[in-house]
Write a structure and sequence with these properties.
Elements: E1 12-17, E2 22-28, E3 35-42, H1 48-59, E4 61-68, H2 78-94, E5 98-102, H3 106-112, H4 122-140
Parallel strand pairs: 1-4, 4-5
Antiparallel strand pairs: 1-2, 2-3
Helix pairs in contact: 3-4
Length: 146
Amino acid sequence: MPNADADRPDARVLAVDPGTVRVGLALSDPLGLTAQGLETFVRGRGDFLAHLAALIETEGVGELVVGHPRNLDGSEGGAARAARRLADRLRRRFGLPVILWDERLSTVQARRAFPPGSRKDWDRVAATLILQSYLDARGAAGGAES
């Protein structure tokens, strides 16, 4: 299903930090300069794709960024292959550009934002870090996709 928001200059970018249990979500501002954490979706507590569809519609999302957890040597493990499959599903379902974005160490960085032993909301923070990294790289490249 093609999405008209993809062509809007003020279309927002939605980041997804996929996990087997928890999925962090973050959203750009309308100018595509800053990332704000949204929430963490817990799998099994509703329909994830329907949840994304509602966010895409209400927030005017025109592009998706999916965290791609490559190994430190750059190779793909099981989690990276799962992220690639999710990105393919999102492309087919929403008709939007979906970018796989290297998220190595984003969870480590997110954990450092909280006191030791505290779970808090690492997934949402990781999604925010992934999205900000993507937005910064896109801005440095003059708006081109990385």
